[in-house]
């Protein structure tokens, strides 16, 4: 599968993350049947700004709830601001109540 095809599959999952919830690069990769492809999910999030549809990339964080992708947003704190506007509390680039907000695509969407 091409990167483009994988990226589109990632975007289809990310579009289903509800406002106020977050998922991880690894959880999305695992859901898509590629558990070792967390980094590719990150690359997809980096490219999501070129997608014709708004992709809520701010809802995808690392496995510890860290905003590791924040430098790919136009402003320094845009990712944090978007998350906080949806009700997440972010302190020192980490979602405080990460476990409560975690959205697992396998549990929420079922198996592919």
Radius of gyration: 13 Å
SS element count, helices? 6
Please write the CATH class name.
Mainly Alpha
Lateral strand order in the biggest sheet: 1-2
The computed structural class is mainly alpha
CATH architecture: Orthogonal Bundle
Which residues form runs of ≥5 with pLDDT under 50? none
Summarize the helix and strand pattern as letters: HEHHEHEEHH
What does this structure look like?
It is a single chain. This protein is mainly alpha-helical and 112 residues long. It has one domain (3-105): Winged helix-like DNA-binding domain superfamily/Winged helix DNA-binding domain (Arc Repressor Mutant, subunit A), CATH 1.10.10. Helices cover 41% and strands 7% of the residues. Strands 1-2 form a two-stranded parallel ribbon. A two-stranded antiparallel sheet has the order 3-4. Strand 3 (90-91) and strand 4 (94-95) form a beta hairpin. Helix 1 packs across helix 3 and helix 2 crosses helix 3 (38-47). The mean pLDDT is 93.
């Amino acid at each position: 599968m091409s990167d483009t095809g994988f990226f589109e599959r990632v975007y289809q999952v990310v579009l289903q993350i509800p406002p106020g919830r977050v998922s991880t690069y690894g959880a999305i990769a695992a859901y898509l049947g590629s558990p070792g492809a967390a980094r590719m999910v990150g690359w997809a999030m980096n490219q999501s700004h070129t997608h014709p549809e708004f992709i809520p990339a701010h809802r995808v964080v690392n496995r510890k709830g860290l905003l590791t992708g924040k430098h790919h947003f136009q402003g320094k704190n845009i990712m944090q601001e978007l998350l906080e506007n949806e009700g997440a509390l972010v302190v020192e680039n980490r979602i405080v109540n990460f476990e409560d907000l975690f959205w697992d695509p396998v549990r929420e969407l079922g198996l592919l």
